[in-house]
Amino acid sequence: MPGADVNQAKQQLKTIIEAYLSERDVERVLDACDYADMAHDGVTRKSGEPYVLHPIAVSCILAHMRLDAETLMAALLHDVIEDTEFSKEDITEKFGRVVAELVDGVTKLSHSSDKEFNKAASFRKILQATLQDPRVIIIKLSDRYHNMTTLDALRPDKRARIAQETFDVFVPMARIVGMNEMADNLEHLCYQNLDLDMYNNIQEVLLQTKPKRCEYQAIWESKLSSLLEQHQLTGRIKKKNNNIELLRHFVKNDLNLQELTHSHAFEIILNSIADCDRLAEVLRENFKVLKYADHIRRPLPGGNQSLLMTLKGEKTTLSLTIQTELMRKAARFGVVLGENAPQACRSAIQASMQNLNVLIDGDCAKTTFNDLLDYLHQEKIWVYTPQGHLHELPQGATVVDFAYSASLFLGNHAVGAKIDGETKSLSTALSHGQVIEIITDVLASPNPDWLSFINTQKARRALQNILREQDIEEQRLVGQQALDRALKLFNRSTKDLTADDWIDLLQWRHLESKDRLFEQIAVGDLLPQLVANHLFSQDHHSKDSQRLIQGTEGVDVKYAHCCNPVLGDPIQGHLSRRGLIVHRARCRNLLHEQHLHPENIMPLHWNNKHDVVEEVSFTAYLAIDMSLNDEQISDLIYQCRKEHTGVEMVRPHEGKTYVNIVVNNRQHIAKIIRELRMQFGFPRIGRLFQPIPMNESSKVAS
Question: pTM of the prediction?
Answer without folding.
Answer: 0.76
